[in-house]
Amino acid sequence: MDSPKILVVEDEKVLAVDIRNRLQNLGYTVPDITDSGEEAIKKVAETHPHLVLIDICLSGKINGVQVADIIQNNFDVPVLYLTKYSPEPILHKQQLTEPFSYILKPIAERDLHVAVEMALYKHEIEKKLEEKHQQLTAIINSMGCAVVVTDTNGCVQIMNPVAEKLTGFKQNEAIGKDLTEVFNLIDKEMNEPIENLAKLAIKADAVLSLPENCTLIAKDGRQIAIGDSVAPIRDDDGKITGAVLVCQDISKRKHKEAQLLRNAFYDGLTALPNRILFIDRLRQAIERSKRRNDYDFAVLFLDLDGFKAINDRFGHQMGDNSLVAIARRLAECLRSGDTVARFGGDEFAIILEEIKDVSGAINIAKRIHESLALPLNLNGHDIICTASIGIALSGSKHNEPESLLRDADIAMYRAKHQGKARYSIFDEAMTR
């Protein structure tokens, strides 16, 4: 695909221009921006964009959700909603339940890139799957996918070579066996067996899609993600005579989706959670503290002391290796329920769950200092990199993650001004 065309529909002019500029910086084409639903529909008809970014709270006669429905149903163009943070029930009410169906304001360029790529990718996959369903009869005749035909009892009658290769069973082995013996399927997420799909389709008298996390356990023990459908077979009189299962290996697609999700929520260098995932976990901690009087937590903000000198002296590769080693040490200082994230550069943040008082956070800070005081042996060099740590405790004034992070950041700068390898606890006097 050439540079994808994206239409931006946003009634905040400054934000719309900013989004357009960000998209263009990322290599996309933005033929136009508009602030009304009616104009958006007209622009889609004229420019045929590959994707529409639309404000869910668009003002005018029709709102963003209504405009999106028209665009998706009449022009087959995917839509990515722009919305400010809302609690989960509100997002559900607005039909934003699918992963990557929306992006939260304010928008970071990297988040925008991931969301757009995922939306385009998902739409492309959905189009291909739709085409496959439309060509189901041709696929069965040409044996392009794994095809298994069963009788009304769900026992195998026919298998094509693709199905033989996928399952590891030869047709003469499989004939007469219950479908679940040949197509041993489990729900990968729940780790539970899936019932005989042929029987389910016959009972429902309908075409059924394979479950989302459907995994085939092949004869040799291989686990293969599969997808497609199972349907009842009818004779000329409309009587059901059996079922046909058509499926294919979707492992590559699943892997790509998983990789996109990982790239969205984890730091590529250290494999720690990134800022996006950290903010989400911090928001969950805040919500727990509102529901439970006995739940307290702390946020630690870390900035490595003099890290630039490591890069200057040993090079950026050594600097990256140091960050990976430091990330490992930070994780080792925490309990299993705590979170450490890399915010980029030489900044890290930590959520300490279920602490009784400030002493719990202080003990962790001291443990981190003790760990970092031990030299890192990298490529024959002993490197010591200390950290300045700011500590902020949860409290009633903290309703948003950003306020806690701000307090921890202020405390960190106070620690840094006091010298290397120090920690400081936030108090209101620091803001005066």
From TrEMBL:
Keyword Ribosomal protein on entry: no
PROSITE patterns named among the record's database cross-references: GGDEF, PAC, PAS, RESPONSE_REGULATORY
Domain PAS per the UniProt entry, residue ranges: 132-205
InterPro entries named among the record's database cross-references: Biofilm_reg_signaling, CheY-like_superfamily, GGDEF_dom, Nucleotide_cyclase, PAC, PAS, PAS-assoc_C, PAS-like_dom_sf
Start and end residues of each Response regulatory domain: 5-120
GO BP annotations, alphabetical order: phosphorelay signal transduction system; regulation of DNA-templated transcription
Cited CDD domains: GGDEF, PAS, REC_DC-like
Coiled-coil residue windows: none
Pfam families assigned to the protein according to its UniProt record, in alphabetical order: GGDEF, PAS, Response_reg
Domain GGDEF: residue ranges: 295-428
Entry-linked SUPFAM superfamilies: CheY-like, Nucleotide cyclase, PYP-like sensor domain (PAS domain)
Domain PAC, first and last residues per copy: 210-262
Keywords, comma-separated and alphabetical: Phosphoprotein
Record PTM 4-aspartylphosphate, positions in chain: 55
Protein name as it appears in the record: Diguanylate cyclase
